[in-house]
Amino acid sequence: MLVLDPCVFTIFGSTGHLSRTKLLPSLYHLEAENRLPESVAIVCVGRRPWNDETWRAEVTRWLEERIVDGLDADCLARFLSKVFYFLGDIGKEETFGLLKDYLEKTPAFPTNYVFYLSLPPAEYKMVAHRLALNGLNKEEAGWRRLVIEKPFGYDLEDANSLDHSLRLDFSENQLYRIDHYLGKETVQNVFVFRFANLLLEPLWNRNYIDHVQITHGEVAGIEDRAEFYDSAGALRDMIQSHLLQLLTLVAMEPPPNLDAESIRDEKVKVLKSIRPIPKNAVHAHAYRAQYGRGRLGDKNVPGYLEEKGIPETSTTETYAAVKLYIDNWRWRNVPFYLRTGKRMAESHSMISIRFRHPPQQLFRETQIQEIAPNWLLLGIQPEQFIRAELQVREPGIGMRTRKTILDASTCDATEGYHLDAYEALLLDVIEGDHSQFLRSDEVNWAWRIVDPILKVWAVERDFIPTYPAGTWGPQESNRLFEKESQAWRNNMGGDVCITD
Ligand code: BG6
Questions:
Q1: What is the pTM of this model?
Q2: Which domains occur in the chain, in start order?
Q3: At the N or C end, where does the chain have fewer CB atoms within 10 A?
Q4: How far does the centroid of ligand 1 lie from the alpha carbon of residue 493, in Å?
């Protein structure tokens, strides 16, 4: 195992949703697995009048809620001894000078620093700049790394301005733009599956693939994130970041080696090749909707407009679907359909690749008539799988076929320890590995793709279609499909007998 540099891991926004639900539980897990550096201090910056002791009690409460397999008393004690509370208001400039003194003058603290901005995006620039004003970007006594959560900006222009401002104070090498999808095991497996198996390569192109679907459905609504979500919407929240990242992994060319830059160069090439959507074609390429009241299991759930903190006239989308084309030799004219939604029928994320029909309808005169196309399904969550759907002959008299599945899943949830996406990425930051983080140009190209859609939607604010909570979204989004034979695939293919 790699020996990691000792460091101080400072979290801004430590009382917020992400810190409570992901960052602190991930750091606890890493401690439990002995994956953290020998010497690490986790400094949590907050405004509430707490101290180390009250903070540790608070953290214990959150961990008790989150760690489903129970807390281990020894591990918890070890972990808490590394957790500190720094009382300070980031809105006040002097906080940063005091923080600097605290970090530098606490003898037990290591001299390498990670600063994690788990904050509303509007505060990134200010916090980064104030860190720099106090010399906390200078790498004289140790390395300094700044982790920024998505969304990186509000639109293309804002993202460029954020980028410009960050890079005045920090070098690209110090910046870690996190997209937690890149830390997910199956997402990393897409890369291995494609480039470690020669078998697929000849088929992985426009000659054999009819279309690709990337779906992210969530049963959950907006939880306690009304303010953030209502100003973001599904396109910014999921498609501009996570789903476009998945698309790049499916579509990229093999990189010359596994260096962070080589991988990111190939991903950027894909994003650059995506056909721009002119404003007058936005309706043909994108669809949005908002959940209304509905049922989840045996429970009635409120509509988006009834959620706490949402203005009753909001037209923010909780469902977004887009059709994209990649204009390069491999993919020209193969549609990539990306879809995401809150309050969907099921929580699952999956990449579904549909192959073309065989060129000759050889079985037309038999009972088979039309052969169902092959699908390759890459399950990201909750189940992680790689499945190929093939047709085989049904035993017995006559010529009939049935669907069978080749299951190449590698991940048995009961087998060994699996790093959660955040755990893997937090370790990468400490290790200084950028390969699963976004480069500045990558973010810029991703914004360029969605920006025309955002612009059109921003002015069309009078009306938004709705769908009942607990469903797969409006039928009308089917209008994005370029052929009648294409339809959203919701079925994960685990049961061979069920149809789409
Ligand atoms: C976040 C979005 O980035 O990803 C959330 O802001 C979304 O709205 C979440 O729920 C989904 O992540 P996961 O890992 O649960 O699929």
A1: 0.92
A2: 7-149 (3.40.50.720), 182-420+433-480 (3.30.360.10)
A3: N
A4: 23
